[in-house]
Amino acid sequence: MSSDNQPAFSELGLAAPLLQVLQEIGYETPSPIQAASIPHLLEGKDLLGQAQTGTGKTAAFALPLLSRIDITRNVPQLLVLAPTRELAIQVAEAFQTYARHIPKFHVLPIYGGQAYDGQLRQLRRGAHVIVGTPGRVMDHIRRGSLVLDNLQALVLDEADEMLRMGFIDDVDWILQHTPDTRQIALFSATMPSAVRRLALQHLKDPHEIKIASKTATATTIKQSYWRVGGLHKLDALTRILEMQQFDAMIIFVRTKSATIELAEKLTARGYACEALNGDVSQQLRERTVERLKAGKLDILVATDVVARGLDVERISHVLNYDIPYDTESYVHRIGRTGRAGREGEAILFVSPREQRMLRMIEQATRQKIAPMELPSAADINVKRIDRFKQQITDTIENKDLSEFLGVLSEYQVENDVDPLNIAAALASLMHGKTPLLLSERELRAPKSFDDRDGNRNKDRSKAKRRRQEGYDIDMQRYCLSVGHEHGVKPGNIVGAIANEADIESKYIGQIEIKDKATFVDLPAGLPKELEGVLQRTIVCGQRLNAKKVSGADGNGGGRGGRGNGDKRRRSGPRKPRNEG
């Protein structure tokens, strides 16, 4: 059991492949809604759950119901109804993540605004889990393209929102076209009378759960966010660290491997930094915290669980490098600063596809989170010069310089050199390869995702300008397991890579679609975590299984973003995947 008497996921009876994924993504202790729901859903009981959006309820129903799926039967066994296509996509992605170690598992989102032919083709191929909006699910049931004879369970997610949007009659109709033996889980933030009537009509002796939302945040914590993701997060973080006057900071990431990777990169940049994750022994954890308290460490890179209950007065800043999976985790994270009336600051990195979670956090905390502006090169240079001058002052006041004064006096006499030139040479030696001052070009990468490329002609001119301005970057060719026979188009590839891996469209190079595969040029040196995401991403019903192409064609795009001769390059601005 955990310190707050919550059971561990390993104690709840979930299937081994799911526990493996939870360990990989840093989930160690279930949230209250998860701990309350999972045992009952595993037993096949109906459930009526009242919990705010963002409390982790997707995992509360996805994990136990995935544990009961018969993977050998490629027919719809679980149907999840969601009020919006945005939520349907999000839930489908969550299922895909949790089932990454379940071979041959298929989940299919179906929603309005999406072409029927693609949905029909994928329904014919089969799927274990269907996630859809009520209107489109009704259409497919009427067409006979969605057959629910083998349905084991049905989830109504955000039922009160479906009522507000006028879907409650559609939901009732769908429920009437499902087997009487199916299990039902209904989740709603509030419980209007119409939703409760629906529950009483269709649920059988449901177990009722009501989770009180504990999302109050200290008023002494200043909160802000920056819209950035993927390859640009580290650059944005480095810029913030240069400018923020912080005493000590916790940086939160989602996975154990990310704590180690980011801590190593920050240490290489000269910061006193350590990783803290679930694999760290209690003894080492305590020693690390003591070093933080004593001022021997300034930055901890941590996962959610290990930082809970951490109370160190020095922690002035919390930075959410990866957005949390639920709002309660966010509150726990930023609660590490601003304690006992002290002032603190919380910064959140948000990618475009994570805007919905940002809105959930604002709703749950009842506080507006303001966008922040990253400093310019000029701002950083002012700080660097001030720090450099202070280093000189501190050294003069606190160090015995007598032996150096003698050597340098001799050098000046022997070489007749201006003392200022000697000082400048020594400063250059001290800085090594790291320049004292930055140029605006060096700060280009963390640019906001709001800046999108335009049409094809603009794209060509921008690509040329990027090469002229230093965007000339090495590209690596990848092979994706989806092609013409699956109905894929360049826009599908660009959208999937941009949304799933947070790689800006301007860094996606030449796309060449073959019958059974697609070749795409991406920036060389992608982190292993991003490569893993691209291997698991689903496009047109196919797992991409992205693999580097070695040999003569291994660097298909060369340098400078999009490769030359790209006949199938997208035209026009990219639409986000959740716009239909």
DSSP helical segment count: 21
The whole-number mean of residue pLDDT values reads: 81
Q: List the domain count as a whole number.
A: 4
Strand order of the largest sheet: 3-4-2-5-6-1-7
CATH class of the largest domain: Alpha Beta
CATH architecture of the largest domain: 3-Layer(aba) Sandwich
Structural class: alpha/beta
GO molecular function: ATP binding; ATP hydrolysis activity; RNA helicase activity; RNA strand annealing activity
Biased composition (Basic and acidic residues): 445-460
Keywords: ATP-binding, Cytoplasm, Helicase, Hydrolase, Nucleotide-binding, RNA-binding, Stress response
Biased composition (Gly residues): 553-563
Tell me what the structure shows.
Its EC number is 3.6.4.13. Residues 445-468, 548-580 are annotated as: Disordered. GO terms for molecular function: ATP binding; ATP hydrolysis activity; RNA helicase activity; RNA strand annealing activity. This is ATP-dependent RNA helicase DeaD. Residues 38-209 form the Helicase ATP-binding domain. The protein has 21 helices and 20 strands. It has four domains: 9-210, 3-Layer(aba) Sandwich (Rossmann fold); 221-371, P-loop containing nucleotide triphosphate hydrolases (Rossmann fold), CATH 3.40.50.300; 377-431, no CATH class; 456-579, Alpha-Beta Plaits. The model is unreliable at 444-472 and 552-580 (pLDDT under 50). Strands 3-4-2-5-6-1-7 form a seven-stranded parallel sheet, with helices on both faces. A seven-stranded parallel sheet has the order 10-11-9-12-13-8-14. The protein has 580 residues and is an alpha/beta fold.
